[in-house]
Amino acid sequence: MVSFEQLRSADPASFDNLANKWSRLAGELSSTDSDLASAARPLEGWSGDAGDTARAHISDVRDGYSTAAEYIEKIPPALRTLSDAVSEAQKTVNSVAETVDSNGHLRLQTDGTVRAIPGGPGDMRSDEEKQAASDLAEELTGKISRALKAAREADRTAVSALDKATPESAGLELEATGDGNIVTPADIPRDASAAEVKQWWDELSPTEQESAIYTHGDVIGGLDGIPAEDRDRANRIRFTEEYTQLNERRDELENLDPSGYSPEARELEEIDQTLRGLDAIHERLEREPTATRPEAYLLDFSTEGNGRGIVATGNPDTADNVVTSVPGTGSNLSKIGGELDKADALLDQAAQTERGSSNAAITWVGYDAPQDLGAATKADFAEDAAGDLQSFQDGLRATHEGQPSNNTLIGHSYGSTVVGHAAQGDKELDVDNAVFIGSPGVGADHVSELNLADGADVYAGTAENDVIRNTPPFIHDNQPINEDFGAEVFDAGEGTDSWYGTSTDAHSEYWDENSTPLRNLGRIVVGESPS
């Protein structure tokens, strides 16, 4: 998906130059085809097997040149159309930028939104003037949003047109691409560290990267150390295919109107649950970005078993602050919509806490979570997830551009147990802040048992009425809100009570709008201390 910064830095002339080069290449291939035809005419009188073989070979070579020219001729129009669309979108963006520059009370953000700058103590503007600035900011943001939408649509159209002109479409993949530009499964460093994967990726040519994305997207999309934009592209291709297939299968089953106990009815129920999660992801990926809720990136997903999904709202490779949230018991693909809403709440609060900051919130349903309280008493799920969560955090560091971001890892409920186990052992968990909220215990008795990056802060908070407080210490060890654990305990509010005191409602209210725990989480995300 085309970002605002990509649109601003794009050079439409480069598309035109490429179009001209492709046009020349198509002409040269056609000329070569004609030259071969001329050179082969003297062979027409050559009889026998050798003559037949020679003519057949020349005919095959000519067909290759002719076919290549035919498909290459489809490329220049697509590139020129894209150039025109990008130019128009840039005109709109430049016009908005000029308006912002001429207005001392507006600011153009890196995500393409325009914000009204709140006045300080010396601001003599009336309330009407301040409102006018806010209205103008909203109007200008809309203009950029529409320009971005047009550019993205043009980009998708160009991609579609170029996909129909690939060597594979022409049946000439090896001839046009060349063996040296194809990435094979053996080339992919699946067991390497995130830093090693990033180095491998950077050493590939653009053609090799495209080869990897389109032929091994199921691996590239989930490989820590691959940049977020490239993982997103690889995963969207696979996501679109699975999403379409499941919707088609659901329609088939619904037309059968299966009885409640038939295999078809059970299959339909399973598909409905899976699509509930995929629908939420699809909605997030297609949502128009706003000032506090930037575009989304699909960093991994799976429909097998309980399903998994890793979605970043905002680009973690360019954000100043990156927060990863790990949910707890009962989390799975079908319920990811609620977790994505929590990411929105975090982003909104972070933006209110530090205006102008660039933030990304990652929903990490990247493990097989326990699905009931009985299973949640076991540490197996957390132990199995620890390595994947560690690697994911390493990947965020490896692919980040510019100065290191402030990385926060929030574990809620059993998710805190996952974070706790990821922070134990010989390998360091590379985060700036580890946050345990509504935690039953993290598999450790003291913060000294956690292997975190130097200078990392450990925070803990549990609502007064959260039923999780009743978890006995022999299940997941010392609760991190206890004084002897050594974490910095912050105010997580009281939460809804019940006739017997604690409640399950209080366990899920940490992201409620304007709540004390949400305000404190927002402070931590942007690098401030909670109350």
TrEMBL record:
Q: Which InterPro entries match?
A: AB_hydrolase_fold (IPR029058), DUF1023 (IPR010427), ESAT-6-like_sf (IPR036689), PPE_sf (IPR038332)
Q: Which branch of life, at top level?
A: Bacteria
Bias category Low complexity: which stretches?
31-40
Residues in coiled coil: 236-288
Q: Where is this region: Disordered?
A: 31-52
Q: Which UniProt keywords apply?
A: Coiled coil
Task: List each copy of the DUF1023 domain by range.
Answer: 306-474
Q: Name one Pfam family in it.
A: Abhydrolase_8
Query: What is the name of this protein?
Result: Sec-independent protein translocase protein TatA
Per the UniProt entry, what species is this protein from, by scientific name? Prauserella sediminis
